[in-house]
């Protein structure tokens, strides 16, 4: 790993390296106990979260296209069940405000299925992939992000269309 990448791994939340950095160094020296010295040397929580999300994004960017596509198709099918659940509830609940509220809760069924199965939903799992690209905005990284977004969006739409075609052909409407 190059030193440039190592510097990004030690991200301190965007602090300038001027006076604040020197103040931090003197506070480490003034610390009264070894425990306080260790804590002062630890990265901030924001830096830890940033690094964790960036590493998750790098994993997403390096996933195989076919694995992404199948996961995205499954997510499209799962999300279609949100509308199916809402439709079933609408058909069986009374026309009241409470019935409408419960019917709207049915929309979460697909989201819960996608999250529990860790499927690739365009609006959810593709966000973390932006962080490594913004950390290192190179043409290959931007291309990998475009590939991820394209494959997942097409897969989600194919999954929704597949369930729509199936339900149109075999449902008793």
Q: Report the sheet-strand fraction.
A: under 5%
Strand count, sense and closure of the main sheet?
A: none
Spatial shape? flat
Give the tally of β-strands.
0
Please characterize this protein's 3D structure:
Helix content is 77%, strand content 0%. The longest helix has 32 residues, at 139-170. It is an all-alpha fold and 173 residues long. The chain has a domain at 64-170. α5 runs antiparallel to α6 and α5 (65-92) packs across α10 (139-170). The chain has ten helices and no strands.
Compact overview of the structure:
The chain has helices at 3-9, 19-30, 34-41, 45-61, 65-92, 97-105, 108-117, 122-125, 130-135, 139-170. With 173 residues, the chain is an all-alpha fold. Helix 5 runs antiparallel to helix 6 and helix 5 crosses helix 10 (139-170).
Give the helices and strands, then pairings.
Elements: H1 3-9, H2 19-30, H3 34-41, H4 45-61, H5 65-92, H6 97-105, H7 108-117, H8 122-125, H9 130-135, H10 139-170
Helix pairs in contact: 2-3, 5-6, 5-7, 5-10
């Amino acid at each position: 790993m190059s030193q440039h990448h190592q510097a990004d791994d030690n991200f301190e939340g965007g602090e300038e390296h001027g006076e604040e950095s020197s103040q931090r160094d003197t506070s480490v020296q003034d610390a009264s106990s070894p425990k306080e010295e260790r804590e002062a040397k630890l990265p901030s929580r924001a830096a830890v979260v940033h690094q964790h999300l960036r590493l998750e994004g790098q994993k997403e960017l390096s996933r195989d296209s076919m694995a992404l596509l199948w996961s995205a198709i499954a997510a499209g099918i799962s999300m279609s069940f949100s509308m199916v659940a809402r439709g079933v509830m609408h058909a069986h609940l009374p026309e009241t405000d409470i019935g409408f509220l419960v019917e709207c809760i049915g929309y979460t069924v697909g989201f819960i299925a996608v999250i529990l199965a860790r499927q690739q939903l365009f609006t959810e799992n593709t966000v973390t992939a932006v962080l490594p690209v913004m950390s290192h905005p190179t043409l290959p990284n931007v291309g990998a992000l475009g590939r991820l977004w394209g494959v997942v969006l097409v897969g989600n739409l194919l999954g929704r269309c597949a369930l729509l075609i199936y339900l149109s052909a075999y449902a008793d409407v």
